[in-house]
Amino acid sequence: MRIIVEGDSDKKFLECYLKYLNITNYTKIVAIGGKNNIINHIELKKEDFIIIFDADDDYNKSKINIENQLDKLNIKNDKIFLFPNNKDNGNLETLIEKIAIHKEVIHCYDNYTICIDSLINKIPNLKHQAKKSKVFAYMSGFGFKNNIKAEEFDLTPYVDFDDIYLNDLKEFLINTFK
Known about the structure:
Layout: E1 2-5, H1 8-20, E2 28-31, E3 49-54, H2 59-72, E4 80-83, H3 92-99, H4 103-119, H5 132-141, H6 167-177
Parallel strand pairs: 1-2, 1-3, 3-4
């Protein structure tokens, strides 16, 4: 069974988490390049798969978007999980922020944001970083870069894979693969 995700960060996180859960009986994780790209993957008709995407700013709208794309491909699939916890708005970065072990590092980024707030009206064209930047800064501070293969990087010192916030994802994965 394939796991379909939006991007490489999702793929790398899931590779690490599945390894932690000792789940190995999936065929591969495929990053399709965004939430609107299911429609471009007609080959999904030929195989079993699950979808793990971001809920973003509207959980229901995101789920309907997935279902509509599957309907256009004439595919029925109810194996959908939306980050962060399959019920709230958010994304992978929301999840990682919740399970980060070193929350004090996350708070440093909050201080950076406050500093940028104080400068935004004084410096032309200065903008806030994307919300994802906080988690990317956290992870890259410990050496996790996008070009590192997940099997070469151990996330366990930096995120708590036993955090109760992961229970919904853990249950979804275990029920799907065990």
